[in-house]
Amino acid sequence: MLKAIRRLFGLFALLAMIFGALKSLFEWLDKNELDSNEIFEDEEHAL
Question: In 1-47, which ranges are continuous DSSP H helix?
Fold first, then answer.
């Protein structure tokens, strides 16, 4: 029983690491200022 709980926590930790890595990857890609596919313009550029 204890082994199953440890494996479940290990699985959740692995999933959290994967989702955290994906989140940081998408945030890094979002920092690219050369992206011309943005839907909304920034307010600074509109003025």
Answer: 2-30, 43-46
pLDDT per position as a tens digit, 3-40: 999 999 999 999 999 999 999 998 888 776 655 555 66
Looking at residue 22, its amino acid is L
- Residue for token digits 């596919």? 37
DSSP letter assigned to residue 40: S
Sign of the Cα torsion 40, 36, 21, 5 reads positive
Distance CA 1, CA 42 (A): 54
